[in-house]
Amino acid sequence: MRVAGKVALISGGARGIGGAAARLLALEGAAVVIGDLLEDDGRETASQITDSGGRATFVQMDVTSEEDWRRAIDAAVSAYGKLDVLVNNAGISGRFIVEETSVDLWDRVMAVNAKGVFLGTKLAIPVMRRAGGGSIINISSIYGLVGSDSGASYHASKGAVRIFTKSTAIQYAKDGIRVNSVHPGFVDSPMTESYHGQPEIREARMAATPLGRMGLPEDIASGILYLASDESSFVTGSELVIDGGMTAQ
Ligand code: NAD
User: CB of 151 closer than 6 A to ligand 1?
Assistant: First the structure.
């Protein structure tokens, strides 16, 4: 029960990495609020948790909407009395090189991946301050640390999350609010299913990963659990890379 008594809101918690984090945090004693666009998947994940004795609620939300964030945070406070942990996990990919990236795609990816993290953080801070502190966990990517031959808006958005995390950590340390980023490597999830389903891409990504396998959503959820728990009480402004060694090379 590593997060017993804590209340966590997980954006994009319906499936993939966010779904795994919701299940693990609930298993370790947290009450979880799953915020996602996907209503069926979100309700299904919440039901899996409650059916196995955990506490979970689903709130339909779009992370690009300030009003939706207000509703989701209000839902956490009215259901469970407070908010201790925010996992800014919702994200979309955008695998186009610079010249192939339209302004619309750039704006959409930045809105979900970067503005969404800013809005969630901004609205969670006063609620966490009232609770005496909290932990904000921003899901960036190895592609927020290094470049690649496939992507422009995605790299920019995840780089923004990395440095926004550090500034927020400095600005709110005095309030007991810790803010850290997580940088997953190549993970099998609904987001990457069709991409990783192409044998040559899968093989290239495994070959680029020293531990020689794809990541699982549960590999990332374990890092999220650590940052959510009091075990990481001296950790803020840091980058937790979970990538099988990919960026160590
Ligand atoms: P996923 O597509 O399986 O899950 C993302 C979730 O976010 C979905 O449930 C989706 O509905 C939700 N979402 C998307 N846009 C939203 C919006 N506007 N409002 C609310 N919810 C929204 O993807 P995943 O692989 O689990 O990715 C989770 C996070 O991890 C993302 O931020 C992603 O960029 C990051 N990441 C993933 C990988 C990977 O290889 N899978 C690697 C590095 C980083």
Answer: no
Ligand 1 center–CA 174 separation, angstroms: 31
The whole-number average pLDDT for the span 197-213 is 97
Q: Is 15 in the pocket of ligand 1 (CB under 6 A)?
A: yes
Return the residue matching tokens 């979900």. Answer: 112
pLDDT digits (tens, 9 = 90+) for 28-38: 999 999 999 99
All structural domains of the chain? 7-240 (3.40.50.720)
Which residues carry out catalysis?
154
Answer whether 165 contacts ligand 1 (Cβ < 6 A).
Answer: no
For a ligand 1 pocket test, name from 139, 191, 195 the mutation site with the most ligand atoms within 8 angstroms of its C-beta: 191
What is the pTM for the complete model shown? Answer: 0.99
